[in-house]
Amino acid sequence: MRTLIISRDSLLHAEIAAQGSARLPALQLTGSRQGLRDAVDRVLHEAPELVIFDASDVEPREAELVDRLARHYPDASFILLTREPQQELLIRAMRAGMREVLPLPLVHRAFHEAMDRIEIEAGITRTRDGKVLAFIACKGGSGATFLSTNLGHALAALGEKKTLLIDLHGQFGDAALYVSDQKPAMTLSDVCSQIERMDGAFLESCLVHVAPNYGILPAADDPNHTVEMKPEHIETILRVARQHFDYILLDVGRQIDAISLRALDTADAIYPVLQLALPDIRDGRRLLDIFRSLGYPSERTRLIVNRYEKGGKLRLGDLEQALGAPVLHTIPNDYIAATDSVNQGVPVLETARHSAIARSLSELVEMLTDCRVPESKGLLGRLFGRNSEGGLQ
Ligand SMILES: Nc1ncnc2c1ncn2[C@@H]1O[C@H](COP(=O)(O)OP(=O)(O)OP(=O)(O)O)[C@@H](O)[C@H]1O
Ligand SMILES: [Mg+2]
To answer: d(Cα 357, Cα 238) in Å, to the nearest integer?
Structure first.
C-alpha cells in the first residue's frame, strides 16, 4: 500500500517503517511530511492509499487542517496516532472519515490489527477461513511426516492453496527438512514465547518457506523446557492461521500431549496414517479408542493407508472393519521415490513427478479441495506445464 507518514518524530517514523516492511505485502512508504501543516501545503502527486498521521503535536488552531488533509486524499485510509486523547481533534478526524485511532507509544499488535482491517476493507487481503487437518502416525514410521509435508506442497503447488504445516512433534521434529534445506530461524517454542506478538505478519515471518504459498512452522526445539508452552498458545496460533491460510496441516507425531490434544480438539479432520499391517492396526485401534473417549465425532476421522500394495493378505475392508472408520485414501509404496525425496529434502512432486506417489498426492489434493478436474492428470499437468516453463516456485 502506498503510504504517507506525517510525523515530526523520526524514531516513530523508523518504527512504523520497520513494522510496515514486515507485513505481507509490505507497506510502501512513498512520502513523509513534518506535521499537519507541511502535509497540507505539500500535497503528494500520487495520492497515498494509506495516511499514518501522528497527531500528538497538532495545535488546537491547526485542527481545521484535518478536514483539508482528508479532502486532499479522499480515497485513502487513515490511521491517527495520538499521545493523549485530544477530543476536538478526534471528533473532527472521525467526521472526516478517519476510522482508526491508536495511542502512542505504538503497540505493534494494535497497529497490525488496524492494518489488517484496512487491508481487508481495501480488498488487498481477504480473511480466509482455513481448514485444520491433523495427520497422526498410528505407529512410528508410518509416514505421517512424509505425507503431510508433501501434501502441504501439493496443496500449494497443484491446488494453489495458501498452506501452512505446523510440526507438533514434541521431540526430534524435523518436518521442514523433508521438503527444504533451510535452517529454521524460529520454532514453535519461540513463537509460544512471544505469543503476544502473534498476527499474520509475525506468523509468516517465523516460517520456513518451501514455496511462496507454503510455509512450515518447525517443531519446538527446547529440550530444557525453558519456554512454558500452553494449550492456549496453540489455540491462538491456529486462530490466526485460519485467518491467513487456506489449509493448516498438523504433523502431530506420535506423542499426544496437552498441546497436540488442544490442536486435535480444534481440527476439522483427523487422518490417522498407517500401513496395512497388524501392528499398525493394533495401534490404530488404540488411537481411535482415545478419540472416541475424547468424544470426537466419528465422521471427523478418516484413515490414510500409506505404503499400500494391492494383493496383500489384509484388505482395506478388513482394516475398515477392525477400526470402525473408513479409509479416505491410499498412498502407494514407492521406496525409491520416497527415499530420494527425503534424502534431498525436496518435495516428491519435484524429485519424482511421474511417480505413483505424486499421482496419489494429486488425487488427494483434488479430494480435499473438492477441485473438480476431469482427470487427475489435470492438476499434475498444471504443475508439469509450469515446470517446463522454468520450474515451480
Ligand atoms: N509411500 C511410501 N513409500 C515408501 N516409503 C515411504 C512412503 N512414505 C514414507 N516412506 C518412508 O518412510 C520413512 C518414515 O516416514 P516418516 O518419517 O514420514 O514417518 P512418521 O510416521 O512421521 O514417523 P515418526 O513416528 O518417526 O514421526 C521415510 O523415511 C520415508 O522415506
Ligand atoms: Mg514424523
So the answer is: 29
Distance 297 CA to ligand 2 centre (A): 25
Identical topology for domains 2-121 and 131-388? yes
Residue to probe by mutation, ligand 1, list 146, 168, 310, 349, most atoms within 8 Å of CB: 146
* 243-260 per-position pLDDT tens digit: 899 999 999 988 889 999
- What pLDDT shows up at residue 379? 54
- Whether 143 lines ligand 1, by a CB cut-off of 6 Å, is yes
Identify the architecture of domain 131-388 in CATH: 3-Layer(aba) Sandwich (3.40)
Give the pLDDT of residue 390. 31
Lowest-pLDDT range of 26-35, 110-119, 227-236, 369-378: 369-378
The answer to whether the beta carbons of residues 291 and 270 sit under 8 Å apart is yes
Angstrom distance (rounded) from CA 113 to CA 216: 23
**Which residue is closest in CA terms to ligand 1's atom 12?**
143
Does 140 sit in the ligand 1 pocket, CB within 6 Å? yes
Q: How far apart are CA 102 and CA 54, in angstroms?
A: 10
Rounded to an integer, the average pLDDT of 326-335 is 97
Q: Write down the H helix ranges in 44-165.
A: 65-72, 87-95, 108-121, 144-157
Confirm or reject: Cβ of 334 under 6 Å from ligand 1. yes
Distance between Cα 147 and ligand 1 center (Å): 8
Is there an atom of ligand 1 within 6 Å of 21 CB?
Answer: no
Query: Which architecture characterizes domain 2-121 according to CATH?
Result: 3-Layer(aba) Sandwich (3.40)
Q: Specify the pLDDT at position 368.
A: 95
User: Residue ranges per domain, the chain?
Assistant: 2-121, 131-388
